[in-house]
Write a structure and sequence with these properties.
The chain is an alpha+beta fold. It has five helices and 24 strands. Helix content is 16%, strand content 42%.
């Protein structure tokens, strides 16, 4: 919507026999969706994205399932059910070029789970484009990192023998709208499709930082339910403090607390202590910790390890899912 290019502020429509195809794009990512339509017309038209959002909003509020389009010389007439008739000016822009037909590669269904997990840690600094996307490691991991935190997830994809970085917009779109997509790399672009919706994005140029330097493997201080710990973090930190302190003490299981100017809150969660090490204490960003815990299934345990500089969260099988920088 905010692009200076008019074509990127529009949704483009094309009638193709019994189908209607809609397309939207920004500087790096393009999405196509095709739906059956009761028409034999052909042709294209474009509407501003805010106009399309208005049409969708009216249809949803009025609970009218049918939306029809009629084209005139310079207008698009939109009928929503039996009660709404809207007229909009057509926008004269070129219809985006679609991706070349290809046999897309099947990828593990766990890819969606992995992208959702690592996407929470993707950087947002436009001056550092290499960490403003998701990294597909050639060893089969997907990775997201942003300064004091790192998320990674083992997928065992076979998309490329060398690593590549994908725009965060692409991964977010795939997670939100595609359930079991096929994916492929074509000419420095990545394409995902579920047969009706297709999303294409450019590969980010440059080298991804060596994230493996952050992957210390301290012994697990405790085994904790991610759901219980995440609930505890949200309870004690909500509206009071951006940081929480965890105290691993066998006598009190794990104490989750905040202490600040004029406030103190604490709660406890159950834990299993697999070693005889001395109790540990660590202070972490509350949101980063909650995001890291969301990388785990809530019916599994998180093996929580601590070093002088980081907290390392991994599965009981040893797969590291998140690393968070410790606050002093």
């Amino acid at each position: 919507d905010k692009s200076p290019l008019e074509s990127m502020r529009c949704v483009h429509f094309r009638f193709e026999g019994p189908d209607i195809k809609a397309t939207a794009r920004n500087a790096t990512t393009t999405a196509w969706v095709s739906r059956s339509a009761d028409t034999t017309d052909s042709g294209t038209f474009s509407l501003y994205a805010d106009v399309v959002k208005k049409i969708v909003g009216i249809a949803q509020q009025s609970k009218e399932p049918e939306v029809s389009f009629q084209l005139s010389a310079d207008q698009v007439i939109v009928k929503i059910g039996l009660k709404h008739l809207l007229k909009f000016k057509q926008i004269n822009v070129q219809f985006p070029v679609e991706p070349k037909p290809t046999d897309l590669s099947q990828v593990p269904e766990i890819l969606i789970t992995a992208l959702a997990a690592v996407g929470r840690a993707v950087g947002t600094n436009p001056a550092l484009p290499q960490i403003a996307g998701v990294y597909f490691d050639p060893e089969g991991y997907v990775v997201g990192m942003d300064g004091p935190r790192l998320h990674l997830y083992k997928v065992k994809h076979e998309l490329s023998r060398s690593g590549f970085i994908v725009e965060a917009n692409w991964t977010d779109f795939v997670v939100r709208f595609l359930e079991s997509p096929d994916v492929d790399l074509i000419e420095r672009q990545i394409i995902a499709s579920d047969g009706q919706l297709t999303v294409r994005s450019q590969i980010i140029s440059g080298e991804y930082p060596d994230y493996r330097k952050l992957l210390g493997k301290p012994d697990a201080v405790a085994l904790i339910s991610p759901l219980e710990l995440r609930n505890a973090v949200e309870i004690v930190s909500e509206g009071l403090s951006p940081a929480v302190e965890l105290t691993f003490d066998r006598s009190a299981n794990v104490c989750v607390q905040i202490t600040g100017e004029g406030c103190h809150a604490e709660t406890w969660v159950n834990a299993v202590y697999p070693t005889k090490e001395a109790p540990a204490k660590v202070k972490l960003n509350a949101r980063y910790l909650a995001d890291a815990l969301a990388c785990f299934d809530f019916d599994e345990l998180v093996a929580f390890g601590v070093t002088d500089r980081t907290a390392v969260l991994r599965t009981v099988n040893g797969d590291i899912r998140a690393v968070i920088g410790v606050q002093v």
